[in-house]
Structure prediction request, 264 residues.
Amino acid sequence: MTQPQRRIFLKGSLMTALAVTAGSVIGFRPQWADAADWNKDAFTAKKIDEAITALFGTGQMTPSASVKLKAPAQAENSAQVQIQVSTDLPNVEAIAVFVEKNPSPLVAHASFSGAEGFFSARMKMAQTSDVVAVVKSAGKLYTAKQTVKVTVGGCGG
Amino acid sequence: MATDKQTKIRTKIQDGVTDVLVLVSHPMETGLRVDPKTKEKVPAHFIQKVVFMLNGKEVATTDLGTAVAKDPLIGIKLKGAKAGDKLKVTWSDNKGESGSEDHTIGG
Prediction:
């Protein structure tokens, strides 16, 4: 009974191949095999507000001193900007980082189920912009932001 | 899918909190960069998901976008992890490539 299954499989893969080719020919979308539950809308949003709403379902945020965003005031290398978000808020469910003026503002979104409210990474920045950290704690959103200066050409500022 | 990309994990326990640093060697192409030789856009190729499992239980998931720098270095903190606990980190990118690394938390 392996034969019919193999047929179906072949057919299926042929269709997928066709769909992918068709997609790239029309220029529909790059042929991303998006990981399951990777929030494509949020990551491809062009405006920071849209990205926040797509990610959390609301744009209601409270600025909070409990959200600590550590980023350089001036980036020496715009392709390697070290950022660190930490918080002493209880029950941290998620941390998200946005760069307002990047082509797609959402940089990363971390969701926690047992880990501390901490996230660090290095990111790319297109130009001088506000970096916004959003922390979701007990269903509410708290935020902090900082401007990171990017000098194109790499000479002083 | 198998991968040739390396995943490295480093952990350190400090005051009951475990610092976890994960380094994946990955190009993280945004899809916006133009190849200087061919003058064509380099297709996007970036990690979308990194999952942290402590002793088989998921503790954190980080979704990454194209803005994360090349060779991502992701840091998180775990509370209550002990020396000898098993940490497993799995990542997957937009081309279906994935990798994982097992790590035993040291003292």
Q: What stands out?
A: Residues 34 and 49 of chain B are 25 Å apart (CA to CA). The radius of gyration of chain B is 16 Å. The mean pLDDT of chain B is 89.
